[in-house]
Amino acid sequence: xxxxxxxxxxxNIGTLMTMQGPKGPxxxxxxxxxxxxxxxxxxxxxxxxxxxxxxxxxxxQLADRMVREELDAEGRLVTPGLVEPHTHLVHGGSREHxxxxxxxxxxxxxILESGGGxxxxxKATRNATEDALFAKAKRSLDTLLLYGATTVEAKSGYxxxxxxxxxxxxxxxxxxxxxxxxxxxxxxxxHAVPMEFKGRGDEYVKMVIQEMLPDVKRxxxxxxxxxxxxHGVFTVEQSERxxxxxxxxxxxxxxxxxxxxxxxxxxxxxxxxxxSAEHLLATSDEGFQAMAKRGVIGVLLPATSFNLRAxxxxxxxxxxxxMPVALxxxxxxxxxxxxxxxxxxxxxCLNLQMTPEEVLTAMTMNAASAIGRGDTVGSLEVGKxxxxxxxxxxxxxYLPYHFGINHVNTVVKAGRIVVRNGQLIxxxxxxxx
Length: 433
Prior knowledge:
Blueprint: E1 5-6, E2 8-17, E3 36-45, E4 48-54, H1 55-61, E5 66-67, E6 70-72, E7 77-80, E8 82-84, H2 98-103, H3 108-113, H4 118-127, H5 130-146, E9 149-155, H6 162-178, E10 182-190, H7 201-219, E11 224-229, H8 236-249, E12 252-257, H9 265-272, E13 276-279, H10 285-294, E14 297-300, H11 302-308, H12 315-320, E15 325-327, H13 341-351, H14 356-363, H15 365-370, E16 388-391, H16 398-401, E17 408-413, E18 416-420, E19 423-424, H17 428-432
Parallel strand pairs: 1-5, 2-6, 2-7, 8-9, 9-10, 10-11, 11-12, 12-13, 13-14, 14-15
Antiparallel strand pairs: 2-3, 3-4, 7-16, 16-17, 17-18, 18-19
Helix pairs in contact: 5-6, 6-7, 7-8, 9-10, 13-14
Pathway: Amino-acid degradation; L-histidine degradation into L-glutamate; N-formimidoyl-L-glutamate from L-histidine: step 3/3
GO molecular function, one term: imidazolonepropionase activity
Function: Catalyzes the hydrolytic cleavage of the carbon-nitrogen bond in imidazolone-5-propanoate to yield N-formimidoyl-L-glutamate. It is the third step in the universal histidine degradation pathway.
């Protein structure tokens, strides 16, 4: 280390889950290796990790260097900042009125076809101002941070016109520019066919390809493009057209695949080389095999299955087939209105039969890889961003075991303490206001 100072030293860590290991997403038995260090420490300078390991070894490396600030972990469990790879963060309104419809037996697609579901949120989002969308999304992003998420993907898809999609994406950019959490933007104009195009899905697909994608790219408002490939939404052929056009423009590509029916979305993800495929509740073994061969990351959303009372994704099959698996809240106003990745930890253990170690891997390195951030976040290593979460727990299994509460005590984002004692620390701008 050339510098003479250390910005922050986190010490007296009971168990430090470094997630150090192979570069890129982890598969199979690799998902159980969390790189645990007991009585650890992390030294930070310029927002990055400069030393990590057993505390005695780290302190030797810091000899003769001034430490500006020290944080006593008091024996707590420390992990990398959690990475949330799939949210619909920016939206207007909420859909609690649909709960009674679900209890009466209405299916997800039946609610959508009646003008509810996504289309209900589209109406609310179109009617909302950009500032109102920003304020609402910021509250959810604050909650995600309080629960340990330090990097969050955010999809559009509730505008379904060029201007309303751009409005959502501008809000995402404002959040990225002003909030401590890193926000990764995904364009999802192909989230549903809007009511004004009902029965004319191919015309809407043409508009997405010819008008929306080029304008979003020109304005630099999204890094990825996603599409909802599902019966009653977009066909495999339509999805392929959209994703191929997006890929040619330089977007990374993702797909909502096989959530309700085995449409062949997983096979399409493999064919096109998507970075990830999401949901995968109805995917065939052949689809999993194709994804594993191409290294497509499966992003699983157990809170959505829980809330819809649907079957759960076959996580064990995916892991045994050598697929990299990531986990997400799928935070959205309808099928998964929760910002708690800790709840997802519990659901993943109980309903997906994943171990706590596999869950942590799926929420750190694999999740980071699913949004193209595996080189900078997802593990605690020298040269990576100093994103850390300190929990009021001494071991990993306690997090999913003791469910329904927030275990996060402190969050360090890019070397700065942004949550302390479970409370957000205002930014300088917020403090002046």
